[in-house]
Amino acid sequence: MAKSDIEIAQEAKMLPITEVAKRAGLKPEQLELYGNYKAKVDIHSLKDTPVKGKLVLVTAINPTPAGEGKTTTSVGLQDALRALGKNSMLCLREPSLGPVFGIKGGAAGGGYAQVVPMEDINLHFTGDFHAIGAANNLCAAMLDNHIKQGNALGIDPRRIVWKRCVDMNDRQLRSIVDGLGGVANGMPREDGFDITVASEVMACFCLATDLMDLKARLGRMVVAYTYDRKPVTVHDIHAEGAMTALLKDAIKPNLVQTLEGNPAFVHGGPFANIAHGCNSVEATMTAMRLADYVVTEAGFGADLGAEKFLDIKCRATGLKPSAVVLVATVRALKYNGGVPKAELTTENLDALKAGMPNLLRHVSNIKDVFGLPVVVAINAFPTDTEAELRLVEEECNKIGVNVALSEVWAKGGEGGRALAEEVIRLCDEPSDFRFAYDADDTIENKINAIAKRIYHADGVDFTTKAAKQMRQLEEQGFGKLPICVAKTQYSFTDDQHKLGAPEGFRITVRNLRVSAGAGFVVALTGDIMTMPGLPKVPAAEKIDVTPDGKIVGLF
Question: Are 137 and 164 in contact (CB under 8 A)?
């Protein structure tokens, strides 16, 4: 019987984190230890070290219930690069408790390509998300307190846009009424919660280049509007200093290790379907100062995570990937071709061919829209047949892209050597990196560019509310910001049921809001929500602890 991910992780012989740090080129005095196997890194001591690493972005096709293995591939690629003698580092996002206890699962990889200690990483870790939630909710408390204590800024309680947050899938908190119980308890109003990973504090945290940049970003965040519809910022209510104080330790990257003892940063974790989907700039830049190759991932499919990584994170920092890895599985492609999940282990070349357009569209976007070299990594499963693997390779070769079979789940770094060799080759290839749109264009044109060039939609429809918001944002000076589209991860469209590579559809934008501190405008499409709910049978029902404190049932 195959071992579960947690069984493999718990059997691993981890190195002391000081030894892992030494492999990364870090000195003991640059570490803040969290036990024997986790540490935060003193980023200030590395600020004068030049950025030298080549950046490798790992992304994927649209996710399916069959699984794609993007994080697993990222971990295995790091181990494979190290096995080939390359000085490399890995940068991943921290998992949210919402998916851990919900349906998606954790974000520590799988099989023999994991980061450890897996239980710690998937649960409280070093407390970063708790600090982010506390900073977010301090802002909310100070905002309501300002109104209670005289409202000197003239804030309209009907136009408060700041929500509290909690790192849990809790649909009951999406829309609430608070402030009940009389004058002493504040002013009754409609309110709501976001999940922590969708909060703007998380976005600012992950895009900040240092502590003072984080403070400045927090200060620019818009929390409400006055009676005459002027934006009110965090700086206006004097909250950014205290919020930054809560985050001063969290902003330091977390160092852990792969199962093969190789260094990995796991830091920050905005969702890619409702936020910008990338690990922290601090972790990425620190890794690029330490290593020659830096492997990082962007959440969900390339239409979300990769697009936001390239159009938002790279635009904000000047980063540029040297190569892109696009992960797919034969099973997921057959699912896109119409095969039910229960029948995916049976060879079906017709369904595979019908599902291939999803992969090819993603590949074309990376290669032709963004101008970056790309390799397709087929995350191998035992049920894949030679004919199926050959079909994927042939179809990708037709558009000038190579395919590498990745067997890292079963073999660790050894199973990723072919992929690593192709990545090394691509990193030396010339590229013509460009964005999907010009930030100086109008909000409407930028959203249309994403919809048409990346999703391949016919165009975008704005609700009356969204059209009004768009005009107001441009009048308030936010029109030149990049766009962060909140959209279902399961489809190129805003309808999660339209699989493959749909044609002849339009995207509907129902709401627009500014994330002035993060530096982008959020466009909410379809029925996407900023506070997910738990499934009928949440993963939390299977998680338990033995009398000796051992966690079971966690993947």
Answer: yes
What residues are paired with 124 via a beta bridge? none
SS3 sequence, 349-412?
Answer: HHHHHHHHHHHHHHHHHHHHHCCCCEEEEEECCCCCCHHHHHHHHHHHHCCCCCEEEECHHHHH
pTM (whole model) above 0.85: yes
The whole-angstrom separation of Cα 399 and Cα 394 is 9
Task: DSSP for 147-176, please give it.
Answer: HHTT-TT-EEEEEE---EEESS--GGGSSE
Q: What mean pLDDT comes out for the span 351-365?
A: 97
Give me the sign of the Cα torsion angle 42, 43, 45, 49.
positive
Residues marked as catalytic? 70, 72, 93, 104, 272, 300, 381, 409
Tokens of 258: 């792969």
Q: Which of 324, 359, 328, 297 is nearest to 429 (CA)?
A: 324
Q: What is the pLDDT of residues 79-94, one digit of tens each?
A: 999 999 999 999 999 9
d(CA 255, CA 24): 10
CA-based nearest residue to 224, from 275, 165, 157: 157
Query: How does pLDDT run across 499-526, given as a tens digit for each residue?
Result: 999 999 999 999 999 999 999 999 999 9
Residue 168 tokens, joined: 């849990």
Give the max Cα distance, the chain: 72
3-state helix, strand, coil in the chain (%, to 5): 40, 20, 40
Provide the pLDDT for residue 554: 84
Rounded-to-integer distance, Cα 18 and Cα 36, Å: 8
- Phi/psi at 280 (nearest 5 deg)? -70, 145
CA atoms within 13 A on the CB side of 348: 22
Predicted pLDDT at 257: 98
Task: Copy the structure tokens of residue 2.
Answer: 């195959």
By the 10 Å C-beta count (0-12 exposed, 13-18 middle, 19+ buried), 541 is classed as: exposed
pLDDT for position 103: 75
Q: If we measure between CA atoms, which residue out of 253, 136, 119 comes closest to residue 203?
A: 136
Q: What are phi and psi of 67, to 5 degrees?
A: 85, 145
Amino acid residing at 485? V
Alpha helices, H only, 2-69: 5-11, 17-24
The pLDDT score that the predictor gives to residue 66 is 78
